[in-house]
Amino acid sequence: xxSINIAYLYYGSAVCTAIGGILHLIIVxxxxxxxxxxxxxxxxxxxxxxxWVLPMIKRWGRMWYVVGIxxxxxxxxxxxxxxxxxxxxxxxxxxxxxxxxxxxIFQIAYVIIxxxxxxxxxxGKPQVIKEER
Length: 133
Fold this sequence. Notes:
Layout: H1 6-34, H2 36-51, H3 53-57, H4 62-82, H5 98-124
């Protein structure tokens, strides 16, 4: 079994969410030419993902990691839904570009790595045994 220093997992997770955020921000100028709502969505998602580097690097704790996973999974689900023809969000199927594939790869990597962090933290903590009186 391969042993990985948990610090590398935190850095890897932070890098994945940062790259996802940067790629979302790169999409903003192009999206502004077509749909301001999409541009705002990509801007907010990118800023949120860049912010999420802090909880990972500073190790803010389990709640922050879970919220990061849930938010990132929501972004992945929204992306998947908007690729379906006649979807309820855009009404048409979006294209799948190299940029969107890259964003999704880094987001999925973030979810996996942060999930491993949660699992390792859970295993590493001693169980509290309550005494009955």
